[in-house]
Amino acid sequence: MSGGGDWGSGEGLLRLDDPEEWDAAFERGEAGLGTAVIGLAFHCPLAEVSPRIVRAMRLPDAGQRGFAFTAAGHAARLNGELTPELYAALRAEGPGGVAEHPIRDTLTFVPFRKLPPWFKRRWVYVAVRDKLEAWWLRGVYAVGDAWRAVRGHRS
Known about the structure:
Elements: H1 19-28, H2 33-43, H3 46-56, H4 62-79, H5 84-93, H6 100-109, H7 117-154
């Protein structure tokens, strides 16, 4: 690990660049594995970090599990793709929970042609929903502006 990290306090774990050290810490049951897997996502190739992210997504600590999902989102941003195992883990967790932001990151940073079928359907759903919401808000703002203009002329 560059700079050295402290598994006890969690300090420096975002600099972790050694997958074997993460594996050893996982076997010891260390805290901070989710935090450390974010560091791996920043510093290691996707093929090396992917199985560790998936393992961290199954940690008993909800906070550390959340960090593992954050690592998946960072992996999508940095690599422009994910492994089949990461796609499967994100799909299994589903939108609306801890995987919501990593799924959106995947839809944003992975080209449509590289997405598996479920993610392509999700991309279409999100794009249509976002467009409808934008139209709705534009109408709401127009009505609000008109109402303020009418009320302003009465005073």
